[in-house]
C-alpha cells in the first residue's frame, strides 16, 4: 500500500482507537478495501475473526460467524474506510488539489503521500489516469478505462494496452485450464482479451511484426493444427476401410468418426 500522509496516519489511528482494533489491523483492512475499489474487501486478520469478506450495502462474513458485535464493528469500519477512499480528491496528486483550493480547510484530507516518478505511481500506461475499475488475480492485474475504450493488463512483467472496441465490459475472470487466459463479459457475451486489438506493449506502440505477451505461465509448443487434422482424417479413412471389410459395423464406424471429428 502507498505511504500514508501524517494526516492519513492520524485518521487511521483515530479509527483504531474508536473501534478498539490495533493500527496494524486497520491498515490491513484499508488495503483490502482499497483493493476492492471501495465497494468490497476480502481480508484476513486475527482481530477480525480470521478470514472474511465485506461488500458495500451491508453484506459481511467473518470467521467468527456468531460474534455479531465483532461483525458489526468490522462492517462499520469497512464502510468508514471506503468513505475515506471515496473522499480522496485525487489520491496521487494531493499537492495539485491543495494548490487549486487555497484557504479551504474543509477539503478532504489526502490519505496517501504523492508517489514520485513519471506516472504518479500507477502501473498502467502514461496518460491514463482514472480507470473505471481495477482488479487483480493470480499475478495478473487490469485497469479498465470505459470512457476512452481502453483496457490495460499487466502479466509477467509486461503491460499491454488493448482497444475495447464497442464492448461495455461488466466483469473479468481468469481461466486456468490449458494455460491461463483472461476473459471478460460484455453485451456480446464472454470474450477472450487476446481477441482485442493491441495498442501498445510496455508503452511502445505495436507493429504487425511485434510479438504480444500472452497470459500463459509456460511456453507450450502444440503440434500444428494442420498436422492434427491430417492425423484425424487419416484415422477416419482407416476406419472406413475396416467398415468396408466388415470388421466394423456402421454404428461402430459412425460412433468412432464422431469422436474423432469432435477433436477438431
Properties at a glance:
32% helix; alpha+beta; single chain; 264 residues; six-stranded antiparallel β-sheet; 3 domains; three-stranded antiparallel β-sheet; elongated
Can you walk me through this structure?
The structure is a single chain. The protein is α+β, with helices and mostly antiparallel strands and 264 residues long. The protein folds into three domains: 1-121, no CATH class; 133-205, no CATH class; 225-261. The protein contains six helices and twelve strands. The chain has helices spanning 6-19, 23-35, 68-86, 94-100, 225-244, 250-261, and strands spanning 40-45, 50-55, 59-62, 133-137, 140-145, 150-155, 158-163, 171-175, 181-186, 189-192, 198-201, 204-205. Strands 4-5-6-7-11-12 form a six-stranded antiparallel β-sheet, with no helix packed on it. A three-stranded antiparallel β-sheet has the order 1-2-3. It has a three-stranded antiparallel β-sheet with strand order 8-9-10, with no helix packed on it. A hairpin with a 3-residue loop joins strand 2 and strand 3. Helix 2 crosses helix 3 (68-86). It is elongated, with a radius of gyration of 26 Å. It starts with 5 loop residues before the first helix and ends with a helix.
Protein topology:
Blueprint: H1 6-19, H2 23-35, E1 40-45, E2 50-55, E3 59-62, H3 68-86, H4 94-100, E4 133-137, E5 140-145, E6 150-155, E7 158-163, E8 171-175, E9 181-186, E10 189-192, E11 198-201, E12 204-205, H5 225-244, H6 250-261
Antiparallel strand pairs: 1-2, 2-3, 4-5, 5-6, 6-7, 7-11, 8-9, 9-10, 11-12
Summarize the entry for a quick read.
The chain is of the alpha+beta class.
Amino acid at each position: 500500500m502507498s505511504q500514508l500522509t501524517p494526516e492519513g496516519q492520524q485518521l487511521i489511528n483515530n479509527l483504531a482507537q474508536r473501534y478498539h482494533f490495533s493500527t496494524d489491523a486497520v491498515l490491513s483492512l484499508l488495503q483490502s478495501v482499497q483493493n476492492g475499489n471501495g465497494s468490497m474487501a476480502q481480508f484476513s486478520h486475527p482481530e477480525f475473526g480470521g478470514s472474511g469478506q465485506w461488500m458495500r450495502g451491508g453484506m459481511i462474513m467473518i470467521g467468527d460467524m456468531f460474534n455479531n458485535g465483532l461483525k458489526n464493528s468490522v462492517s462499520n469500519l469497512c464502510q468508514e474506510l471506503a468513505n475515506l477512499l471515496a473522499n480522496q480528491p485525487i489520491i496521487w496528486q494531493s499537492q495539485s488539489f491543495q494548490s487549486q483550493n487555497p484557504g479551504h480547510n474543509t477539503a478532504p484530507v489526502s490519505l496517501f503521500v504523492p508517489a514520485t516518478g513519471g506516472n504518479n505511481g500507477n502501473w498502467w500506461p502514461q496518460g491514463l489516469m482514472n480507470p473505471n475499475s481495477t482488479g487483480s488475480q493470480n499475478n495478473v492485474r487490469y485497469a479498465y478505462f470505459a470512457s476512452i475504450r481502453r483496457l490495460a493488463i499487466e502479466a509477467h512483467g509486461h503491460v499491454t494496452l488493448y482497444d475495447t472496441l464497442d464492448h461495455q465490459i461488466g466483469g473479468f475472470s481468469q481461466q486456468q485450464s490449458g494455460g491461463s487466459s483472461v476473459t471478460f463479459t460484455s453485451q456480446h457475451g464472454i470474450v477472450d482479451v487476446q481477441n482485442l486489438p493491441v495498442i501498445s506493449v510496455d508503452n511502445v506502440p505495436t507493429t504487425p511484426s511485434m510479438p504480444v505477451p500472452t497470459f500463459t505461465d509456460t511456453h507450450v509448443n502444440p503440434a500444428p493444427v494442420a498436422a492434427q487434422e491430417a492425423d484425424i482424417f487419416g484415422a477416419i479413412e482407416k476406419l472406413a476401410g475396416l467398415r468396408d471389410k466388415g470388421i466394423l459395423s456402421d454404428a461402430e464406424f459412425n460412433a468412432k468418426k464422431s469422436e474423432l471429428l469432435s477433436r477438431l
